[in-house]
Amino acid sequence: MSTIEAIRSGPEPPTRAVVLLAKSAFAAAPMWEMHRLAERIQRQRGAGETVAFAFSEQGTPALRDVLLSLRDSGHSEIVILPLVIPLEPSFHAWLGRTLQRWLADDPDNWPVIRIAPAPEDAPALDGLIGQLIDGSAARPAVALSDKPLPDASLVPAQRRRVLVCQGGPCNAAGADVIWGHLRNEQERRKLRTVGEGVMTAKSTCLGPCNLAPVLQVFPEGTYYGGVTETGIDTIIDEHLLGGRIVAALAYAPTGRKQALRG
Ligand code: FES
User: Is the pTM of this model over 0.85?
Assistant: First the structure.
C-alpha cells in the first residue's frame, strides 16, 4: 500500500499531520529511507498525529499529492518540516507561493498549513552532529576505487528535449515542483521510450523571466510560460506525445518581447 493510500484508508484521522519534506530521490532506496524515517517519527509522536513524507522535486510521493490526500482525509492542520540543510533563503518563498497556488484551487476546503523552521535553527542539532561525527569511527575509511571508468556511453536517440528553467525568477515561481512533476511523469509514463522519446534537463535562465516558470520544448524550441502541474500534463499529452504545440501556454521563439497571458 502506498503512503497516500495509507493516509486515505486509515481510521478516523488525527487532527494534525506532519509532512517530512525532502528535495529529491532518484531511486527506490532513498524513498524507502524516508518511509522508515516517517515510521520512526510516527512512533515517537504517537497516534495523535499523522506523520507522512514527500518530495518537493523528483521522487514519490510528491508534496502536492500528499497534501491533497491529507486534506481529503479530514486533517485540520498540516505542518511541513523541510529536511534540507542548508535551506536556501528562497526555499520558504517559493514553497509559500506554490502552496498559495494550490490552495487557490479550492480555498474553502484546505486545513491550516504551517511551515516549520529550518533544521539548522534547532538547538539540538549540535548534539546530533556530534553523535554522527563520533559514529564515523565505526565505519570503514574511504578507499580509492579500482573499477575502470566505462570507455563508451550510449548516445541518446530521443528526439524530444525539455529544458526546465531553474533561474531565480522561475524558482521563485515554483519551477522546482514543476521539474519534479515532469520527472515523476516521465518515469510513470515511460516517456524516454514512448513515441519519439523525451529527454529532460534543468537549465539556467532561458531568457523570458517574466513568463516564469518557463520550460522549452525541442526540436521546435517552443517556450511555455506560467506552467503548472496541469499544464505539464497537457504538454505531455499534446506536444510531447501528440506533436501538437499547446497554443494556450506557448510562446514562439520570435526574438521579440512577449508578456505572460492570462
Ligand atoms: S529565470 Fe527562468 S527564464 Fe529567466
Answer: no
